[in-house]
């Protein structure tokens, strides 16, 4: 009797003359697009005052970004919130005022100005910076390259298993199942504050694009 470990995809099925393998492929690429969240948070005892302050500063931030060459269509509201603020004294809730938060998501095509975008926004009143993320316009093309590598990797594994068992492998799989595509940083991406440097340095690093497949190959004993 043959017992298959359910957690191992690289298996040999004696009943169906199948070799089942998993193939993986990955490719490191340079990002060409970035997004960053820039926001304005204002507080006041009066809601109208907090909203007005937020609107004035927010518009100033937006105008400064457009002056840098960022298209208005690449600036959109990511989050807008109005929240009451409270202090707590001996278990009692004491109303302090209101907090208005307006977060923008800014898309940047020129990665060389990311630091300048952040600095300009901060200089014009932004007091929230978060979620610097990098991606590529050519994700689909790179993913297809990684997918080819994954299938080649699966075929190579199947051939190795067949050669070890001294059986003949049909090189064309009878079933291929695509896994989930993954894009992740290849190197750490962070904001660096360096002494003597006038502009915040944001390092894009590289992106690692991964693909995986599961494939079933038929085999038969070598005729003697």
Describe the structure.
The chain has 224 residues and is of the alpha+beta class. The chain folds into 2 domains: 11-31 and 138-221, Translation Initiation Factor IF3, CATH 3.30.110.170; 33-135, Alpha-Beta Plaits, CATH 3.30.70. It has 3 helices and 12 strands. The strands form 3 sheets. Strands 1, 2, 7, 8, 9 and 12 form a 6-stranded antiparallel sheet that branches. A 4-stranded antiparallel sheet has the order 4-5-3-6. It is elongated. Mean pLDDT is 86; it is low at 1-7 and 187-197.
Brief overview, please?
By secondary structure, this protein is an alpha+beta fold. The protein has helices at residues 47-67, 114-123, 139-165; strands at residues 11-13, 18-29, 33-44, 75-89, 92-108, 128-135, 167-169, 175-178, 182-185, 191-192, 201-202, 207-221.
Level-2 CATH architecture of the largest domain: 2-Layer Sandwich
Any idea how many domains? 2
| Order of H and E elements | EEEHEEHEHEEEEEE
**Poorly predicted ranges (pLDDT <50, ≥5 residues)?**
1-7, 187-197
- CATH topology category name of the largest domain: Translation Initiation Factor IF3
Give the overall form.
Answer: elongated
Query: What's the CATH class label of the largest domain?
Result: Alpha Beta
Distance between the termini: 25 Å
Rg, Å, rounded: 27 Å
Q: Please, what is the CATH homologous superfamily of the largest domain?
A: Protein of unknown function (DUF541), domain 1
């Amino acid at each position: 009797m043959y017992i298959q470990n359910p957690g191992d995809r690289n298996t040999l099925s004696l009943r169906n003359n199948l070799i089942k393998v998993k193939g993986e492929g990955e490719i490191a690429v340079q990002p060409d697009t970035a997004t960053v969240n820039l926001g304005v948070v204002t507080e006041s005892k009066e809601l109208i005052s907090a909203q007005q302050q937020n609107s004035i500063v927010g518009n100033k931030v937006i105008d400064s970004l457009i002056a840098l060459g960022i298209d208005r269509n690449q600036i959109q509201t990511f989050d807008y919130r109005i929240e009451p603020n409270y202090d707590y004294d001996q278990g009692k809730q004491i109303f302090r005022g209101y907090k208005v938060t307006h977060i923008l998501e800014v898309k940047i095509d020129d990665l060389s100005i990311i630091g300048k975008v952040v600095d300009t926004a901060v200089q014009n009143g932004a007091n929230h910076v978060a979620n610097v993320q990098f991606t590529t316009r050519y994700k689909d093309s790179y993913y297809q390259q990684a997918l080819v590598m994954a299938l080649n990797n699966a075929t190579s594994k199947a051939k190795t298993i067949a050669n070890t068992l001294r059986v003949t492998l049909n090189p064309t799989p009878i079933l291929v199942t695509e896994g989930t595509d993954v894009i992740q940083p290849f190197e750490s991406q962070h904001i660096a504050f360096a002494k003597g440097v006038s502009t915040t340095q944001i390092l894009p690093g590289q992106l690692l694009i991964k693909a995986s497949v599961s494939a079933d190959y038929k085999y038969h004993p070598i005729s003697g």
